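hey m, so remember when u said the tokens were messed up on ur end? i reran from scratch. heres the input so u can diff it against urs
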Amino acid sequence: MRFTWRTAFLVIWDILATYLALTLASITPITIDEEILVSTDVLFNFGILAIIYVGMFMAFRLYNNLWEYASVQEMSQLILATIIATFLGALIQFVGGVRLPIRVYFIAWVLFLFFSGGMRFAFRFLYHGKSIIERPPPASRLRTLIVGAGETGSLTIRRMSTGDYAIQGVPIIAVDDDPHKKGLRINDIQVAGTTSQIVEYVKRFNIEQIVVAIPSASAEDRKRIYDICLHTNCRLLTLPNVRDLRMDELDNVRLRKVDLNDLLAREEVMLNTRLISG
């Protein structure tokens, strides 16, 4: 686990959230469970659960996620981690002779999920609001066609939609050579067709910028796509493969101009004179 200020903050928050959730769960009923709250071992027992929650979150790598880009997958991991941690904590305490009512564990799980998940997804809402306020000027946000409807393409569209300075543009349409993706939508952007139709879509949708978001493609496929793009007057950019990056590196991903080395990439290819002059 990479330790950062955000990691430290979330660890401390999860510990406090555990104590708060268990305390509220103990006083939720009409009759307060005095035996729980007045016990001299209450801090120790709650502390065990806090350690289990933090340890389980570390196992699920929930402290180094970029919650600004969190989705259903991260929420599912959070729910699963809290369920396992709650069950494991209850089991350990039961073996150790601590007999808390089952409803206390259940209510504490719901409250902890609310506190812990709420804080993490607050990063997403704060980031979204910040990006709206600091949105780049309209002149720099070119109408963009994204080549590739995979992970890298999804990242490109999301970052553009939030007004990220590192990945500027207005996502208009996407293309992908996978026939099963045609007609579907990725982050609310339609996958209109294949790469062979790039020139057609550039004219139809007044595209000003093309982002090639398929870095895992072979050198031959990239050369073919670049050759098609060079038949347009669009600005041609690309992105690194997001699968090769750590989660904490995704925040610094930037668009870059297509380099001639992209066309070589381990294989010798013939460079046409128009590409060289360009």
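this time it looks ok to me. The CA atoms of residues 39 and 219 lie 67 Å apart. if urs says something different then somethings off w ur setup not the seq
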